[in-house]
Design goal:
CATH architecture of the largest domain: 3-Layer(aba) Sandwich
Helix content: 25-40%
Shape: elongated
Number of domains: 2
CATH topology of the largest domain: Rossmann fold
Strand order of the largest sheet: 3-2-1-4-5-10-11
Order of helices and strands: EHEHEHHEHEHEHEHEHHEHHEEEEH
Number of helices: 13
Strand content: 15-25%
Radius of gyration: 22 Å
């Protein structure tokens, strides 16, 4: 809903897991706000709403030089620091008090679905208490799981990392054949795990098996599929989502981590543990034998946090991350009172998108998963997914073989 412009300060925060391009969005918001007469100051929250509630000093972003901002934009991770706190009503009172103290009337929050919910809660509390605070969510998440979005800034760069990691790992696996398991981020959405399929450039290239959280994981079927591939080719490279679930919907990885830490949203911290990879490797060693009666060579890696902030992002991802920040500022300048910026794909050939402002409630605290047309059976992805994902990661290298 659009309304009149009001005078006051703007404040920007970054939330959730960092990415390789989240600072592009930060700079996009700053650039979009500079020169707007109603905006008296541009502030940055240290560690998101956590820092705001605790009274941490805000960063004055208005005086940062263009040269420095461009360097910040190309720096991975959250320049302002991040937060995983989800504010309740009492917290929102502290947030609004901090906004009043700094004459903040424009609130920008860069993050994923939980962050969009934080933005919604803060905005609704402002309306409830009569404090006019215009709130805008700027999308970010490597999980690619925001509703109303074709894809999210951060995903393309993480997908590029995953694809290249699998390309290199497949070369290793060819040199010393065996069974190799790589566990990938994504929690309830399989997009990032599915991106491993971009590593395939020729016949026999891995990953040979891809396991997504959208497909119930069956242990016996998994062993049979690995054994079939291993018997046929002498090796098998496997991509496994950290969020795979059994037929009852129970998270397999979370159940293996004794005393697993959880964040304010109740999410178990999966990527900091190698438990899932170790379990699957031990399962294979126990159930599959070579002709000599010995267990095959099995290795497991958890790609973990390296996926998020690798400092060689997708150029498309970096550009779009900047654009969604600028779009949020532009909507504020045109009098919008709240909303979430969404990326909508218009075409694949040529690749073309547009940015739209959608309702916070359509994004907040909701999770988008891989659609059925992207999933091929129990352990692969379709051509439609490859066509969807390829434009987001940029050009990938091609390796030669003897």
């Amino acid at each position: 809903m659009a309304g009149r412009l009001i005078e006051g300060s703007a404040i920007i925060g970054q939330s959730g897991g960092p990415t390789a391009v989240i600072n592009q969005s930060l700079v996009g918001v700053i650039e979009g706000l500079r020169g707007l007469k109603p905006i008296k100051r541009i502030l940055g929250m240290r560690h998101g709403v956590t820092g705001l509630m605790k009274g941490m000093a805000n960063v004055d972003l208005g005086g940062v030089s263009h040269e420095t901002l461009e360097k910040i934009a190309k720096t991975p991770s959250s320049a302002l620091g991040s937060s995983r706190d989800k504010p309740n009503e009492a917290d929102c009172t502290k947030i609004l008090d901090a906004c009043r103290a700094n004459d903040v009337r424009y609130f920008f929050y860069i993050g994923g679905n939980d962050s969009s919910d934080t933005c919604r809660i803060v905005h609704e509390m402002g309306v409830k208490t009569g404090y006019e605070l215009r709130c805008f969510h700027v999308p970010k998440t490597v999980d690619n799981d925001l509703m109303m979005n074709d894809h999210t800034p951060g995903f393309g760069s993480a997908a590029r990392y995953v694809a290249m990691a699998f390309m290199a790992d497949d070369c290793d696996n060819r040199s010393l054949p065996g069974i190799k398991i790589n566990v990938i981020m994504g929690r309830n959405a399989g997009f990032l795990t599915a991106a491993s399929a971009l590593a395939r450039h020729g016949e026999g290239d891995g990953p040979h098996l891809i396991y997504l959280p959208e497909v119930p994981f069956d242990v016996d079927r998994f062993v049979a599929e690995v054994e079939e591939k291993f018997r046929a080719t002498g090796r098998c490279q496997i991509a496994v989502s950290e969020g795979i679930k059994d037929k009852t919907g129970k998270d397999i990885g979370a159940s293996l981590i004794a005393g697993a830490q959880t964040d304010a949203h109740g999410n178990a911290q999966l990527s900091g543990s190698g438990a899932l990879g170790d379990m699957l490797a031990n399962l294979i060693k126990t159930r599959i034998k070579t002709p000599s009666g010995k267990a095959p060579r099995v290795r497991a890696d958890t790609l973990g946090y390296l996926q998020r902030c690798w400092p060689e992002p997708s150029h498309v991802d970096a550009a779009e991350a900047r654009q969604v920040g600028t779009k949020a500022a532009s909507e504020a300048a045109q009098g919008a009172t709240d909303g979430s910026v969404a990326i909508v794909r218009l075409s694949n050939h040529p690749y073309k998108i547009e940015k739209r402002l959608v309702k916070l409630g359509d994004v907040a605290a909701k999770t988008r998963v891989m659609p059925a047309e992207f999933i091929n059976g129990t352990h692969d992805v379709t051509r439609a997914f490859i066509e969807y994902c390829r434009p987001l990661v940029g050009e990938l290298p091609h390796f030669a073989r003897l």
